[in-house]
Amino acid sequence: MSTTFLRRSLRRLRLPLGRHLLTFTSLSSAGLGETVLPTLSLIALVRVTGAETSGHVIFAQSLASFWFLVFDPCLERATQRFVPIEQERTGHGCALFLRLLRLDAGIALAATVVALAAVLGAWMLGILSADLALMLVLSVAGRGVMAPYGMAFTGFAIADRLRVSGLLRVQGALVSFGLSLAGLFTGGPLLYLAGQAVGALLVAAVLCLLASRAVAQSLGPAVGSPRLPAGMLRFTLPTSIGTIVAGISDTGILTIAGFVGGPPLVTILKITMAPGRFYATLATPVAAMLYPRLAQAVARGAGAAVIKRDIARTTLLMTGGGALTAAIALPMLGTVITVAYGAEFADTGVVAMLLLGAACVKGLVCWCNVLPLATGKPGWRLAYLCAEAALLVAALLIAAWTATAALTTALLFAWGRLVIAILGTGFWITSLRRVITSESHVRLPDSAARPTQSA
């Protein structure tokens, strides 16, 4: 009897572990593809056009990305929280998802039109040169069609199809990579940006279509026109502001670097921040898998012990991953950068090491981006991200004011980023108990039952 019970228990344990491992592998592969392929494109861009021209291209892309950060409502966070709740209460989760997807696409279209008009006006007034204006137009177009990506991936998460989304992301990255390289070698940096824009448009159309089908298959067909849930606007506003502020640590830093240090500093930071992005491909899938689990646990009214268990496992996993990454990557970063980008960037290896170390430290608490949202406390995330962004901008400005050479400025900023990562990790670990409280759990009324879906 005991042997049979043990075998059944082990079989039940292996199935979810194997499924989670496959999902993690798929998302990690997607993240690596979305990081490696753009890095290869960057290497080709720097090799073909040089540091000065590539710096202008990177600056245009960063400025376009920052524009859409400012005008992006970031509905995907609210979608992952409120669609499961709406499904539990009324059974209209699919209809709510489709409404939010259309709303997100409409806002992105409006932001694209305004950005293109602003670039045209700046060019007509003589503020922008013709080449930079064209780069900005193509960058804005490419970034605008990418806006629904987040909602599409949210749909796959709600439908428990994250593994499928990982495969689609790899295929999309390959399409964009091929078109951007074809444009670069055919017509230079302008066609490079045009190829990226065309690839992004094709991928966005496919992702949105398949994500909508996945949600319909999981939650049932879209029925009715549900209103926006109560409290969604209050939840979305700080979440959107938090995402905007979080973008300052990457895209915003590159944009500010373009103003204070010019193309050389932008190019150095873009190159040296790449290893940290590689490591983020490990942290991001973990958080992506954790968020729907936490959101569903809160929707069911699960206790704090369940959430704490998942957080503890995530922290231990990222501790091992960070230590292994640092041990393998740090000794060879300088050589890899020199071989990839040329002897001109041989001295940037130290900067890349510091930024990778900061990414490893920050990855220990990758759950900090989703835990406050899942528990209905986006204000915690917003306050932290505002403080982190302010410190990062201050570190960059102080570095630019202290040093004159682009490499020295990047080195000072990298040290500052590492210190900020250590302080932030300590903050979240010590604040975990206060973030997880019973008051934050959403408990459905006992009378609310999930309507049955007709076949």
Please provide a written account of the structure.
The protein has 455 residues and is an all-alpha fold. The protein folds into two domains: 211 residues, no CATH class; 212 residues, no CATH class. Helices cover 83% and strands 0% of the residues. It is built from 16 helices and no strands. Helix 2 packs antiparallel against helix 3. The longest helix is centred in the first third of the chain and has 70 residues. The protein is globular. It starts with a helix and ends in a 20-residue tail after the last helix. 49% of the residues are buried.
Q: Which key terms come to mind for this protein?
A:
mainly alpha; 2 domains; disordered C terminus; 455 residues; 16 helices
Quick take:
With 455 residues, the protein is mainly alpha-helical.
Which structural class should the secondary elements be placed in? mainly alpha
Largest sheet: none
Q: Let me know the average pLDDT.
A: 82
Distance between the termini: 40 Å
CA-based shape:
globular
Describe the oligomeric state of these chains in a short phrase. single chain
Unreliable stretches covering 5 or more consecutive residues = 5-16, 438-455
Strand content: under 5%
Secondary-structure element pattern, one letter each? HHHHHHHHHHHHHHHH
Determine the fraction of residues in helical runs and give it as a percent range: over 70%
**Radius of gyration of CA atoms, rounded to a whole number:** 23 Å
Annotation field: number of helices: 16
Strands, total number: 0
- Count of separate structural domains: 2
